Structure prediction request, 860 residues.
Amino acid sequence: MTRYNIKEAEKKWQKLWDERQSFVVPDDCTKEKCYVLEQFPYPSGRLHMGHVRVYTLGDVAARYQKAKGYSVLHPMGWDAFGLPAENAAIEKNEHPAKWTYANIAIMREQLKSLGFSFDWNREIATCHPEYYKHEQKMFLDFYKKDLAYRKESVVNWDPVENTVLANEQVVDGCGWRSGVPVERRKLNQWFLKITNYAEDLLEGLKTLPNWPEKVRIMQENWIGKSEGLQFKWGVVGADGQTNEQIEVFTTRPDTIFGASFVALAPDHPMAQKLAGDKPGFDAFVQQCQSIGTSEAAIEQAEKLGFDTGHTVQHPFVADRQLPVYVANFILMDYGTGAIFGVPAHDQRDCDFAHKYNLPLRPVVIPEGEDPDHFVIDKEAYNGPGKLANSEFLDGMSVEDAKKTIIAKIEEQDTGFGTIQYRLRDWGVSRQRYWGCPVPFVHCAECGIVPVPEDQLPVILPEDVTFDKPGNPLEHHPTWKKVDCPACGKEARRETDTFDTFFESSWYFARYADPRNENSAFDKNKVERWLPVDQYIGGVEHAVLHLLYSRFFTRALKDCGYLDTAEPFAGLFTQGMITHETYQDSDGKWLNPTEIEKSEGGVCLTEKDQKPVKVGPSIKMSKSKKNVVDPEEIIKAYGADSARLFILSDSPPERDLEWTASGIEGAWRYINKLYRLIAEAKGSLPAPGTTIPDNIGEDAAALRCVIHKTIIGVTTDIEAFHMNKAVAKIRELSNALGDFKSDNNDDFCVLREGLETLVMLMNPMIPHLAEDLWLQLGHDIPLVDTAWPQADKTLLKTDTVTIGVQINGKVRATITLPADADQKTTEDTALADPGIQKAVEGKKIRKVIVVPGRIVNVVVS
Prediction:
């Protein structure tokens, strides 16, 4: 028997698919469409095992749908703008474009070596002017629709990098790359009005049943719809009058009688007005600016306040005035930039009150507690209860109290019930070179002027240097100098570039028409393919990327680009790939290739046989060196082995631990399948031979297994239970390997089983499947062969085996006709020797029969 040559076979079939253009999908195809898409990669230069997992899952889905008869769009491209390219330019003195395109070439070949069914004719790179010129046009259209604007905003500023950092790039209060403390600064930034769609984005989640519930919940929480009260507190002046006012928003108006203080954001206009002339105020504000603007950074920071020396008048208690603080945990961009604090019922306010000796007034009392003796100390109470210590609210439920206070405030005409959202407008400005230029010009005479559409794209200059901190576009001697499109006078280009989430928020639509030079895409073509039927990617993108993409489709719809509201009809989020970590005696991290395990399981360094500390299996990370190079795995075991292990060892939504034994087991199974076909093919009838009626009992039972497996694997693939599908395929291969018969007609069933096995494994291990399909005598490649159909009439059985219980514990099993009536079932159960022995000397109280399922004999 010839040994399976993995490398030769995989190259052969990849070449055939490429020559036949097997995965190129025409726009005018009349078949029903299916759009399968995985989140596109950043071209870092090397694939990692996380890439292999997500693209293997997508490839199974795409190949399966193609076999089911759909016209499948399964494209690939590159999320090619971003900071790493600039880092490479600085560290390696290499232009970001050259570095990026070189990496794309490497990763493209790596992806092709895995046999993925991508339509490479639709490949895109977001850093190419033919891509980003269209998003510049989109931005101008958003501007015309009042969906884009520029304003001064508080941002995270890295004083070493001289750039704005996203909240996610601030780690423990420091810049993720520079390591220095970030500052809060006010800068003019470009924004997109995602908040215009807050309610629609929330409602749209109800139309996405094929999204994981956890992702929908994460988006709901991020949007953060809050119903509450917005109202004004009067600031008490020196004359006792309340001429100045502080407006707050609260979701807990019921607790107003428990208020102990009012707090302002450091950059609130009233903060400067009330405390700007007080000693220590400027230093306090500067201290606040050392914290990032993210909620996480603020949550972790110690809660600090600056007493303005002013008070506000309580709206319902004439003799109660509350101190006004400036606090480091209030953000101007959230709500109104001011809050009233209720220490008894909010933990943050409770901590603040203890620090500044402010009163804690419980006003919501748990059921069963005496209001006169219910005391709050270090822990706030935020559970249910009845109102107390609240004058006209006493005895009310929380909800009734909320409604009452809102009505009272509206009667006073000092506020109103309203809805607010946690969601903030999307700041898209970045002070970086390697990004899409913002298509605007700043003119001293005309102000902000859009670049005329016939002058798009605004292309990045190639002759940039990275020898100064900050934005190279700002330092460029000529690029930013331009005449104003409106008045013709000297003006200056906008030097900000877009956040890279901008490119990934519409790339899925560009795949529908990737070579269109005149527009982002033809409306008819994009309507043909959108929404994406199955989108696959990491849960780490559950909020930002997915939310921005959902916003983009709505904004594009309002601008007339398309009619689709939701970009992704189905979503699957895969788990991470993990691996053990290894450290030498000095604590230095070691790559798995630098260690070896003895027969006793002891880990030693390969170089000098010194002990190695084995750590837990965690997410693969370059910093901890617990990474496995897919290229090396493919060279050693083949692409199909890597794909099979990825699919078989864990449910795809969970983390997968990479092990050497796991990949070796997959490789052994690949060879077992090859031997199974090679050894059986000599005894098989010709392809297409009809199965006769006179097959033996074992062959008939095997046919039942074959067709049950078709149904099981089909169901599992559609549910993304890929590991279960692999298990069923293994069970079928075992049954086929065990099959023996002296009846030549029975080998027609063996052929049916082997052909079914190969067709079912095709989406998962396509190279081997094609090779075995050819060995089974087929001329048409498997890639062009339809998915097997189950004959459900073969699944019917004449008998059924059920359990017999004594007082609820199974004591025996019986086999009887599938249509046996209750009396026959009871008689058969009681006649079983094991049951007779178990009930000997006992009284049978009753016999419970569930037809076809179970018999329970109750004895005493």
